[in-house]
Amino acid sequence: MTWIRQKLASCGDRIACHEAGKAWSYAEFIKLIDHAATQLPSKGAAVIEVQAPTTIEGLAMLLAVGETGHIALPLPAELPEAEQDNRRLVANSSQLYNQLEGSGLVLFSSGTSGEPKGMLHNLDALLGRYKNLSDRKDHSLLLLLIDHIGGLDSAFRCLFSGSTLVVPETRSPEAAGLAIASHKVNVLPASPTFLNLMLLSGTAQEHDLSTVEIIAYGAEAMPQKVLNRLAKAFPNAQLQQKFGTSETGAIRIKSIGNESLFFRIEDSDTQWKIIEEELWLKTPSRVLGYLNAADKGLEADGWYRTGDLVETDEHNNLRIIGRASAVINVGGQKVHPSEVESHLKRDRRY
């Protein structure tokens, strides 16, 4: 983990984060990590709850856990207390930690299709994916929480390149617009749902968002109509699709164009293949396993069956068309919900 210290120290008095009315320098961020480390057990490997008044302090605690060989369990205050208690119970009752070499990170799935699944990452391997980032001086908005792989990816990608995180007062279109205008944010990572809310609420008309150069969307499917509207609302911004899973971490990809949902994988650490329309990934940062569920999708040879169904174009670019779990069997034929939806939209009666 020495490389992390070196990267952060090289940034000195640069601003690491704007949050809660304060500007935190990289030097101050290092002090936060040092302070957090003093609060941790000196021996053994323990599950450490990562809770802090601010996101930047939570990130400092997480990195301190990584340096000291413990296991981080992010529990943002925004989570309902019952969900926090459930995560504590799952994280403190697993035998999976015996497989861990080095520090760990416990993340939970969203639980949209059942009980949230707890999964164990090798934190050293996950952080190592950001070691070779080039130095940049971007201002990047942070909307997702640090218990989400997308939130961690946005934060690490920013901090380990010497850029500045901007955390809005609340996670609302109004607060996001104000933060973008106030701190001249040029990188906007957000979910399609949030971006659509920004369009519908007229955020671009109420605030000066002209500094936005990159809109990075992911975490859920992007509707083509929303993508087209974004391209018109931000004609000078590059629209970049992001892709990753809680099980593998973020995968480096490149969008084919601003108004295209096709992308290609450009990640030297990642292998991929398609089996029966399903995308499989193999990365050094794949989870070790699940704490409270069977290892479905985790192959013994390191592959992860994502459950994402994809199609390819003539150049072998990929486009996600749905989830394997959502396929409908009609008279023995498999039908994707997206196909039904597209037909309905073509009918003016709907």
Number of strands: 22
Task: Give me the CATH superfamily.
Answer: ANL, N-terminal domain
Terminal CA distance reads 55 Å
Secondary structure category: alpha/beta
Contiguous runs where pLDDT drops below 50 for at least 5 residues: 327-336, 342-350
How does the major sheet shape up? Answer: 5 strands, mixed
Q: Please count the helical segments.
A: 11
Helix content bin = 25-40%
Which band does the percent of strand residues land in?
Answer: 25-35%
Instruction: Fill in the CATH topology.
Output: Rossmann fold
Number of domains: 1
Radius of gyration, in angstroms, nearest whole number: 21 Å
Question: What is the annotated CATH architecture?
Answer: 3-Layer(aba) Sandwich
* Outline: globular
Strand order of the largest sheet: 3-4-5-6-18
Description:
This protein is of the alpha/beta class and 350 residues long. The protein has a single domain, classed as ANL, N-terminal domain (Rossmann fold). Helices cover 31% and strands 26% of the residues.
List the helices and strands and how they pair.
Elements: H1 2-11, E1 15-19, E2 22-25, H2 26-38, E3 47-50, H3 55-68, E4 71-74, H4 81-91, E5 104-108, E6 118-122, H5 123-128, E7 139-141, H6 149-159, E8 164-166, H7 173-183, E9 187-190, H8 192-201, H9 203-206, E10 214-217, H10 224-233, E11 238-241, E12 243-245, E13 249-251, E14 253-255, E15 263-265, E16 271-275, E17 278-282, E18 289-290, E19 304-312, E20 318-323, E21 328-330, E22 333-335, H11 337-346
Parallel strand pairs: 1-8, 3-4, 4-5, 7-8, 9-10, 10-11
Antiparallel strand pairs: 1-2, 5-6, 6-18, 12-13, 14-15, 16-17, 17-19, 19-20, 21-22
Helix pairs in contact: 1-2, 2-3, 8-10
